[in-house]
């Protein structure tokens, strides 16, 4: 990727986060970079192409963090690591979450990819649950589709925590990542076995 293209993406991300998607045009980005709109359009013909490029940057970043986080610490620790690293990535690209519904509606390419991505994330989630159950940290399902519904709840929290934070605070801060990580992490506590709860409590006390 050329330096100009990287600069455009970097500046666009900064502006989208600071001003909101609806307040940033190609002209806004070009002015901030002191380049012409024509020069910018040589690299990204439409604003939607910038948004798509940033989306795929975010997906790649989260994919990398999931792999890295899964190899650090024990099984429950990996769950905590993945939650926090994912929310940190979302914070870095927070405009996506704040305008999530709008972006999904307006960008067919992102919508199609996101639908497939959720299937992958669900499989990763169930692979992790299987390991936790096999190693005695998580109980078996009691209710029909209990863990399927847990995944859905976690997905909702993950996609919309930033919107919630923006309602209750004037500005979303990095410190909020820790707060909402705890909200998500505690969602799994009712499903833990005694062994799992002991390890969980040791983790939060350390």
Automatic annotation (TrEMBL):
Q: Does the record's keyword annotation contain Transit peptide?
A: no
The protein's GO terms of the molecular function aspect are: DNA binding
Query: Which Gene3D superfamilies does its entry note?
Result: Tetracycline Repressor, domain 2
Keywords (A to Z) from UniProt: DNA-binding
> What superkingdom heads the lineage?
Bacteria
Cite the Pfam families for this sequence. Answer: TetR, TetR_N
Task: Please report the stretch or stretches of sequence annotated as the HTH tetR-type domain.
Answer: 2-62
Could you tell me which InterPro entries the record lists for this protein?
Answer: Homeodomain-like_sf, HTH_TetR, TetR
The DNA-binding region ranges are 25-44
Q: Which PROSITE patterns does the entry mention?
A: HTH_TETR_2
Protein name, as recorded: TetR/AcrR family transcriptional regulator
Top-level taxonomy: Bacteria, Pseudomonadati, Bacteroidota, Cytophagia, Cytophagales
């Amino acid at each position: 990727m050329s330096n100009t293209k990287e600069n455009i993406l970097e500046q666009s991300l900064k502006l989208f986060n600071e001003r909101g998607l609806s307040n940033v045009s190609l002209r806004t980005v070009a002015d901030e970079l002191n380049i012409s709109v024509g020069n910018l359009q040589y690299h990204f013909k439409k604003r939607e192409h910038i948004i798509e490029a940033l989306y795929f940057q975010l997906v790649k970043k989260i994919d990398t963090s999931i792999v890295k986080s899964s190899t650090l610490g024990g099984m429950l620790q990996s769950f905590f690591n993945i939650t926090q690293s994912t929310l940190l990535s979302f914070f870095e690209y927070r405009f996506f979450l704040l305008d999530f519904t709008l972006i999904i509606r307006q960008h067919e390419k992102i919508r199609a990819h996101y639908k497939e991505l959720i299937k992958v994330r669900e499989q990763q989630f169930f692979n992790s649950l299987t390991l936790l159950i096999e190693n005695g940290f998580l109980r078996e399902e009691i209710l029909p589709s209990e863990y399927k519904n847990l995944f859905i709840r976690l997905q909702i929290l993950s996609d919309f925590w930033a919107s919630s934070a923006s309602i209750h605070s004037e500005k979303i801060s990095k410190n909020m990542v820790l707060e909402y990580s705890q909200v998500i992490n505690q969602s799994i506590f009712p499903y833990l076995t005694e062994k799992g709860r002991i390890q969980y409590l040791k983790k939060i006390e350390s």
